[in-house]
Amino acid sequence: MPETAFWILRVIDWAAVPVGVFALVHALMQRPDAYSAADRMTKVAWVGITAAATVALLLFSFAGRGWIFWMAGLVAALVYLVDVRPKLIEVQRGPRW
């Protein structure tokens, strides 16, 4: 593998880690009742999912043998950030006039 490709893959690997950490920290900071009000899984479930996603992003590599676990971790973190997080913010903010 050329050196340039190696470094591009490293950047992709390590750029995904803050995504998982952000999702985990956000999930931890939310009120438990907000998850049920947003009609999503419980706080415990989402904290577990985002924690497992962060661990997968840290332990596995996009270019390694465990790439499927890395990809699953990235998808789980992105689902939280794109689907769950906006609903939680909307529920906790209340109606906007």
Short description:
Helices cover 79% and strands 0% of the residues.
Write the layout of secondary structure elements.
Layout: H1 3-29, H2 32-37, H3 43-59, H4 67-93
Helix pairs in contact: 1-3, 1-4, 3-4
Keywords: Membrane, Transmembrane, Transmembrane helix
InterPro entries: DUF2516
Pfam families: DUF2516
Structure description:
This protein is 79% helix and 0% strand. With 97 residues, the protein is mainly α. The chain has one domain (3-93). The relative contact order is 0.18. The mean pLDDT is 93. This is DUF2516 domain-containing protein. Keywords: Membrane, Transmembrane, Transmembrane helix. Pfam families: DUF2516.
Alpha-beta content class = mainly alpha
Q: How would a crystallographer describe the biggest sheet?
A: none
Question: What is the alpha-carbon Rg in Å?
Answer: 16 Å
Q: How many β strands by DSSP?
A: 0
Beta-strand portion reads under 5%
What's the average pLDDT?
A: 93
**What characteristic shape results from the CA principal axes?**
elongated
Distance between the termini: 56 Å
The count of helical stretches stands at: 4
The domain count comes to 1
Helix content: over 70%
Order of helices and strands: HHHH
Low-pLDDT stretches are none
Keywords: Membrane, Transmembrane, Transmembrane helix
Protein name: DUF2516 domain-containing protein
InterPro entries: DUF2516
Transmembrane segments: 6-29, 41-61, 67-84
